[in-house]
């Protein structure tokens, strides 16, 4: 139900917990997927952004399992919107958890250069936040081109279904290894493969601007979002029955459907007219 901070939290979230056997199967499935993508592209290595958040921590962990630590290059790309503890967690993942090579590249100067070129966008929180995300995408591909690597993405099923990512920003990658997992399953698999609890349980944040959290911006926590996606969007349970089942106002279910429908363009190739002849 809605709380004082106006984030909707389901009274009885839908249980998406995997068994240990299912977690093992997903681990194998995803590491095989990463190996397959790299083989098919005829390369040996991958590059990816490390944010200290759970999505990039899990993907980098599984990439090391699939390819070995020498084949994974991390980029930690702080901006003024990032909390220092998240950036130090990103370095902790690279150094202590995985032992991979990584670079730290400050993106503030790049963002400033774009805003010098187009000052009208200054102060536009969403446009500048998306610009920060797209600067990271440009750097991922600079390194990827130079090292003949694939760019690994970290999009999960929850984000993809509601379009909660930046088009041609964090969506600009060569593949998304955890695309089949809802957010709470990302946390489960992370713990299963040995990611420390403090990283696996962290509050999700896009950090496009200071203090942003996914739950505040979307107006519901991930347990609620995942429940509505699994039951109503993926499962075809009617909106009213979904709302009753998990204990949320029907508005929350309708909001998710609206996010799903209005973000369809992010899940498709850019369209063009059919050839005339
Ligand atoms: N119907 C349509 N058909 C074709 N294209 C359409 C369109 N509607 C908008 N567009 C295009 O899409 C643009 C808007 O999309 P976009 O630029 O992505 O921007 P938008 O979706 O407005 O913002 C990105 C959202 O994703 C969140 N995010 C971003 C990055 C990371 C994370 C994270 O979780 O880490 C979350 C962010 O907080 C924000 O809520 C429009 O400016 C327009 O160019
Ligand atoms: N400061 C950063 N430096 C490097 N990469 C980043 C940074 N911020 C975001 N990214 C990249 O963008 C991806 C999308 O961000 P997102 O916030 O959805 O994932 P996350 O931080 O890994 O997990 P969470 O959603 O739980 O915060 C990250 O997984 C990471 O690959
Ligand atoms: Mg994050």
Automatic annotation (TrEMBL):
Keyword Ligase: yes
Alphabetized GO MF terms: ATP binding; glutaminase activity; metal ion binding; NAD+ synthase (glutamine-hydrolyzing) activity; NAD+ synthase activity
Binding site for deamido-NAD(+): 134, 167, 174, 265-266
Segments forming domain NAD/GMP synthase: 29-270
Residues that coordinate or bind Mg(2+): 55, 159
Record pathway: Cofactor biosynthesis; NAD(+) biosynthesis; NAD(+) from deamido-NAD(+) (ammonia route): step 1/1
Keywords carried by this UniProt record: ATP-binding, Ligase, Magnesium, Metal-binding, NAD, Nucleotide-binding
Catalytic activity, reaction form: deamido-NAD(+) + NH4(+) + ATP = AMP + diphosphate + NAD(+) + H(+)
Signal sequence extent: none
Binding site for ATP: 49-56, 154, 183, 205
Gene Ontology biological process terms, A to Z: NAD+ biosynthetic process
Enzyme class: ligase
EC number from the UniProt entry: 6.3.1.5
InterPro entries registered for this protein in UniProt: NAD/GMP_synthase, NAD_synthase, NH(3)-dep_NAD(+)_synth, Rossmann-like_a/b/a_fold
Cellular component GO terms held in the UniProt record: cytoplasm
Quaternary organization: Homodimer.
Function: Catalyzes the ATP-dependent amidation of deamido-NAD to form NAD. Uses ammonia as a nitrogen source.
Family membership noted in the UniProt record: Belongs to the NAD synthetase family.
Protein name: NH(3)-dependent NAD(+) synthetase
The organism of origin for this protein: Haloarcula terrestris
Taxonomic lineage of the native organism: Archaea, Methanobacteriati, Methanobacteriota, Stenosarchaea group, Halobacteria
Gene giving rise to this polypeptide: nadE
